[in-house]
Design brief:
Strand order of the largest sheet: 4-3-5-6
Number of strands: 6
Shape: globular
Largest sheet: 4 strands, mixed
Length: about 230
């Protein structure tokens, strides 16, 4: 069962971890490449700030972004800023999101995200939590998938397995961690069932496009090629 208040607290804790880690950088480090192709660390930080504001829009009933082009332009505009400006923006935008999340609301209502995707309002804090945790890893500053909170990792695997369930490009796939947790996904493409096993961090890395799956054990076929998120 989703508890949006608990997830909001988890978002705040994850944000503080990220801000503390980023504060140890310098202006030069912010301009260096992140783990995301074509993005510097400044791009990642700018995206995190603008995503917080976009999710405020979602919770307040406005379009998440004016347009995809405007979203990309805002990130490009903000990416070159020095460290202090990046930290202030991430902190202040996170506070705006926290304040909206703390306000009385009908959390069972349906909200609209990008590209016509809809979800229940109560799931928005978890979506923000995922943004903060995964992009902290993307910064490439010492925070790895293995460092993610175990609860987050399991729930994000749940989320991504559900996202790819029935996908026309993904064969039936059984996922399992070495300690026995299991999921199913895919099923829309021919072939399978394929069994994929590994650590929770490696499974998440593959599902989220952060690792190539080389550390996973695959039986019943090749490791499925997943569509981009």
């Amino acid at each position: 069962m989703i508890d949006h208040a608990v997830d909001l607290a988890s978002v705040q804790a994850a944000t503080e971890r990220l801000l503390t880690a980023v504060a140890a950088l310098d202006d030069a480090a912010v301009t260096q490449s992140s783990r995301l192709p074509g993005w510097t660390r400044g791009h990642v930080l700018a995206h995190l700030a603008r995503n917080a504001d976009a999710l405020v829009n979602v919770l307040e009933g406005r379009p998440m972004y004016v347009s995809g082009e405007a979203r990309d332009a805002d990130i490009e505009r903000d990416a070159p800023r020095p460290l202090d400006a990046q930290l202030t923006d991430v902190r202040e935008s996170a506070e705006r999101f926290r304040a909206v999340g703390a306000a009385p609301a009908d959390w069972s209502r349906t909200v609209e995200l990008r590209n016509g995707v809809t979800d229940r309002a109560e799931r928005v804090p978890f979506r923000r939590w995922a943004e903060v945790e995964l992009h902290h890893v993307d910064l490439g500053i010492g925070y790895e998938l293995e460092d993610l909170p175990a609860e987050f990792t399991e729930r994000e695997i749940d989320f991504l397995a559900a996202r790819f369930a029935g996908h026309r490009d993904v064969p039936s796939t059984a996922l399992a961690t070495v300690d026995g947790r299991v999921w199913t996904t895919g099923g829309g493409a021919d072939g399978g069932p394929v069994a994929v096993e590994g650590t929770a961090a490696d499974l998440l890395g593959w599902l989220a496009g952060r690792r190539d799956g080389a550390a996973l054990t695959v039986k019943g076929g090749d490791l499925p090629s997943l569509p981009p998120l």
